[in-house]
Here is the input.
Amino acid sequence: MDGSVYVSVMELRVRLGQQPLPQELIDVFQREQIERPTFGQWRNMLEAIVQHLEREPGLVVSELVEFAEGHLLPELCGAA
Here is the structure.
């Protein structure tokens, strides 16, 4: 799970360059206590990042959003 979050954040970093992360994602990370997240909190962070990435064209890992939304997140619904 945490690997999916890492890849998603890296995709976003590629898109943003030197710009900071969007405040909406920073808020999610802070709310989810990123220092010591639970499995459900990892899921919530992934969902927030993927929702942001689905608006971004040309991802390096092009199947990331489809995989997360179509397979990974639905399987993890009970973990949140």
Summary: The CA atoms of residues 15 and 56 lie 8 Å apart. Residues 2-16 form the longest helix (15 residues). The helical segments are 2-16, 23-31, 39-53, 64-75.
